[in-house]
User: Which sequence fits this backbone?
């Protein structure tokens, strides 16, 4: 699928060591969609989701700069479902600073960024919410896990968050999704939890549910 709009003519640019592409939207009142892929993905993977969710918005799609057996990720892990917290904290800070620089370079409103992440990408998007009060205007998290436990979250003050989860997800158990919802709500986020029954797959019905939710925020 060829994304519409303008992509920098020099291709992917490297700010803060993060390969990415930026597509200018055709409606300046719309937010910027920050696309964050799953393990083994690239900055191309979630472009079709942006077209479905809001074809008029800016798109900033980022490739993870941590390699696991040659597969891009956004932070290291020690084992399946066990995050390297030190690296997660560092990479989350790196991504937050990248967003500051990208907003200046591409002239979009830093306060109007909505993350759209899948799996590992959803995890680092959740980590932005856990660590930085105004990093995101909102987030669409497809099959995320709890990024960290035992920390105090910032006041999220009604930040809208969509969580797409699987009742039978072998990677992100349902209780994990419910715990993430509870932690975000305790920080005063406005969370909508949507359930599917297709394991860890990102289904068309889940994407459509995210699109409908996005129209309400």
Assistant:
């Amino acid at each position: 699928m060829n994304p519409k709009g303008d992509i920098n003519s020099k291709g992917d640019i490297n700010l803060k060591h993060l390969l990415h592409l930026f597509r200018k939207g055709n409606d300046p009142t719309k937010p910027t969609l920050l696309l964050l892929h799953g393990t083994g993905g690239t900055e191309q993977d979630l472009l079709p989701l942006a077209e479905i969710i809001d074809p008029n918005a800016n798109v900033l799609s980022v490739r993870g700069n941590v390699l696991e057996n040659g597969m891009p990720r956004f932070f290291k892990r020690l084992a399946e479902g066990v995050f390297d917290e030190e690296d997660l904290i560092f990479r989350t800070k790196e991504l937050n600073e990248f967003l500051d620089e990208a907003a200046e370079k591409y002239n979009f409103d830093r306060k109007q960024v909505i993350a759209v992440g899948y799996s590992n990408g959803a995890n680092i998007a959740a980590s932005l919410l856990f660590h930085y009060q105004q990093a995101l205007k909102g987030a669409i998290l497809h099959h995320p896990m709890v990024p960290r436990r035992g920390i105090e979250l910032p006041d999220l003050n009604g930040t809208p968050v969509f969580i797409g989860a699987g009742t039978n997800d072998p990677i992100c158990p349902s209780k994990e999704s419910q715990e993430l919802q509870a932690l975000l709500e305790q920080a005063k986020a406005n969370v909508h939890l949507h359930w599917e029954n297709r394991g860890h797959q990102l289904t068309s019905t889940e994407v459509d549910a995210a699109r409908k939710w996005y129209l309400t925020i």
Observations:
- The chain is about 30% helix and 25% strand.
